[in-house]
């Protein structure tokens, strides 16, 4: 991917990598994840569970999304 592609993608207002990963989850998994955040499970624990299930994300991506510091349409 080139810088041009990346800027074009950012301008489209697409969700951030974390949200894209969440969107790709089966609905039941999305619900389980949403519930985990609601229950206040730690980010570390949630990240570990996601990775154990083979979903690719990172502390940085989760943090950016949770603090509203990501490229998701606001
Ligand atoms: Zn986001």
Rg over C-alpha atoms, rounded to the nearest angstrom: 13 Å
Shape: elongated
The helix/strand class is: mainly alpha
Compressed to H and E, one letter per element, the order equals HHHHH
Number of domains: 1
Q: Identify the bound ligands.
A: zinc ion
Total number of helices:
5
Helix content: 55-70%
Unreliable segments of 5+ consecutive residues: none
| Distance, first to last CA | 25 Å
Strand content: under 5%
- Main beta sheet: strand number and arrangement? none
Count of distinct strands: 0
Mean pLDDT: 93
Strands, helices and their partners?
Elements: H1 3-11, H2 17-24, H3 27-38, H4 43-52, H5 59-66
This protein binds zinc ion.
């Amino acid at each position: 991917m080139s810088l041009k592609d990346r800027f074009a993608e950012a301008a489209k207002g697409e969700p951030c990598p974390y949200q894209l990963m969440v969107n790709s989850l089966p609905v039941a998994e999305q619900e389980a994840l949403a519930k985990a955040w609601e229950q206040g499970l730690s980010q570390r624990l949630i990240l570990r569970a996601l990775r154990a299930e083979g979903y690719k994300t990172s502390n940085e991506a989760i943090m950016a999304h949770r603090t509203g510091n990501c490229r998701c349409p606001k």
